[in-house]
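Much of the work behind modern protein science is quiet bookkeeping, done one molecule at a time. The protein below has been through that process, and both of its lines are reproduced in full.
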Amino acid sequence: MGVLGCVLRALRIGLVLAFICFQLIITAQSQDADALKALTQGWGNLPPSWTSGDPCGNRWEGITCTNSRIIAITLSAMGLRGQLTGDIATLSELQILDLSYNKGLTGSLPQSIGRLSKLRRLILLGCGLSGKIPDSVGSLEQLIDLSLNDNNFSGEIPASIGNLKKLYWLDVANNQLSGGIPVSSGNTPGLDLLVNTKHFHFGMNRFSGTISPRLFHSKMTLIHVLFDNNRLSGSIPSTLGLVSTLEAVRFDRNSMSGDLPSNLGNLTHVNELFLSNNDLTGPIPDLTGMNSLNNLDLSNNSFDAAEVPKWLATLQSLTTLTMEGTELEGELPPEIFNIPQLQNVRLRNNRISGTFGLKGSYSGQLQTIDLQNNSISQVIVGLDYNFTLKLADNPYCQEAGASSPFCTKQQDLGSSYTTPVSCIPPRCSSDQIPSPTCKCSYPFTGTLVFRAPPAFGSTNFFTELQRDLLQKLNNFRLPVESLSLSDVSVDQFGYLNMKLAVFPAVQDHFNRTGVFSLAFVFSNQTYKPPKEYGPYVFYASTYTQFGGARSNSKSHTGIVVGAAVGGSVLLLLLVCAGGYAYYQRKRVEKAKQQANPFVSWDSNGAGGDVPQLKGARFFSLEELQKSTHNFSEANNIGSGGYGKVYRGVLNDGQIVAIKRSQQGSMQGSREFKNEVELLSRVHHKNLVKLVGFCFDKGEHTLVYEFIPNGTLMDSLSGKSGIQLDWLKRLMVTLGSARGLQYLHELADPPIIHRDIKSSNILLDERLNAKVADFGLSKLFGDTDQKGYVTTQVKGTMGYLDPEYFMTNQLTEKSDIYSFGVVMLELITARRPIQDGKYIVKEIREAKDGKNDLYSLQRVMDPILLSNTTLLVGFEKYVDLALKCVQEEAAKRPTMGEVVKEIEHIVQLAGINPNADNSSSYEVSIAGNYGHPYSDNSLFQYSGSIPLTRPELP
């Protein structure tokens, strides 16, 4: 009895301990675990540690927690794929979201981002995000870092950002943003309210209009104002001279005009001043007093003709002087070359004349003097000169000829610097790179870009940068052994680019924590170069060579876990025994259904023949419910007479659009069958792809590829936020035409679409056009000997072929007519029938025998009229559209003839018609409204570097 009692007591204690253990496991689950799992559902390339357990309790890589609440997510340079959904808002304690350097993270930034009331850093640079920046960003009152640069954001910059009183860093550079720079008015905020912000990085966008003088004032503490490479006009506000804290200023490569502010000389802390490639006029202002200035570029403006300013010699910190094409004349004052740090002087394409003399003393740092294409007639240079002098296209060279070393035409090729290696590089495997210390490694790589580049002619620039960077990375206790710089160049935007490779210490690779930490140092601007190097940005490459085994748990922990696992297995066996038979039965049923998904076609009252498939995938209703969170309204991205469209994420991570019919919808079984049959057998890059379908439990559901930028109609109406210029409209026209040409001429048998309209043309992430909605399509194989189909008229009013409407006789020329109406939509941005007026009649009356642009101005889209000089081939385009909408079908061209003519127009516009949009011209990706779908992107932080900057730049 005693033994039995001991056994029973031990068993009872074991059960109690097992129960307590189970409760502890449940309690330890992070409150945010479910939210994070929902956020990352369908993502690709997540870290292996994210496969089980709790993000906080199981120490998921890239996740930082406090009290089982997620406070930081940093997953940089992982090659992640997915979208950022509204589920992000449920991580209410989140302070840092760093998703940088993952181009596979697409879709829009959800409006719900504004609910993250504790968010301090939103860092999404180098992703593939598009659409408008949501106004809700202005609700993030704790935000100090907003980095959205190097994405595809479009539309205007939200004025609500002016509410962010704590904002330190604002970077929206290298996007497709347009419109003006907002300033406050009454109760409406603006960027002039950002008195604590140090960085305005707005370069490489499409901002336009004038800059309000109210944008700048003396209370601001800005150090970087970068508005380069935009479309800004008007004058540079004189209030800029009131911001005494400025260190770098760029307004170059815009369309700014007028006189330069006379008070620029007040900016005594400015190191870089770039105002080139504008339409600035008037006198060159006296910049005496800018004692910190080391790089000045005023090139290619329309200043009043004047002699080379003598006050230049007072700028004793100057290292690079660039004044090409600035109407300079007269002789060069020799005292300019006595500036002690001067390295480069670029004064080509002026009218500098007389003698260029440089004997005696001059800067020992001098490297290049470029005076090409001037009027210099004589040169006096000592024999011991050690700089490069460029004098081609001067009268001097006509006399000196080939005998002078100064007269060869030369381009400034920058530097070919590469980090020197003092040892014999070893033989490494093909995917490894030898480090400067001659170890074979897998380095962390990327491109380091200086946005206001200092002088870099000497190797000292690079060696000092290397030394500083390596020292600070080691100070951050990162596992870095060495680094190298290479491939130095200045790009077309005036930025200094160089490749950076950071090599690991101890082993030949970084683990994920090492990569996250390194990337965070750059994306968060934790690394701050010496002041004279100016603002920079780093674009990291995806890192794939991870290594390092995860350490084993201690033995006693293994025993506890083993016991828990053993108990769990016993419990699972009991559960599984009861469920096995049920699973097997469902498995057999599912196999039968997949083999013949339309077994219930007649029983459901579908009518007609069973659909004939060629490769379309069958989905069960359960699969689609899971992919859409049970068809939740959060995933509803559109609706119509047939029902609703939902965004879904399949088990393999593919994002899809799911069109779900509802009872009594306008699209019945016949249209469902038609679209399944047709789309399962046609394949072309300009036709929307059918992924599969669901005919299960009364569902009529179609699953398409995900098209992120909505319909052409949404873009033309402004609903999507996408602004199409003339070149993009030409490419959209060409893509749509090629899709139709495939249907008419290459499909077997050929197909008449029968419902071509702007709402049935979708735009993908690169604005490639894809023809959609084949529910009304007919096969040419149904035609009689006369070449037409006699059928009930179907289509959309405004696009309908009048001959088809009158005779009920459908031919491929009916699609041509509808396509012609779409072409007219593209130049007017109007609906076919709007305000009681028909677009075809409007264009014909406006043209009225004339063949020029101006006859159509009253009906044209104002966006196209904003720059009429770019409308190459416009008249030919209108003529082609009017040929397509001839009332007699016989007078309309074929789709092949239409494609050929559009290709010709595209070539006239300077675009290769056979090139992909991504390489043929710069595309602007935009908004995610209605049709577009947004999902999720994610990063993690798990490293030794602090979550706050040790020293803010």
About this structure: The longest strand covers residues 480-490. The two ends are 77 Å apart (CA to CA). The longest helix spans residues 555-595. Residues 724-920 form a domain with the Transferase(Phosphotransferase); domain 1 fold (CATH 1.10.510.10).
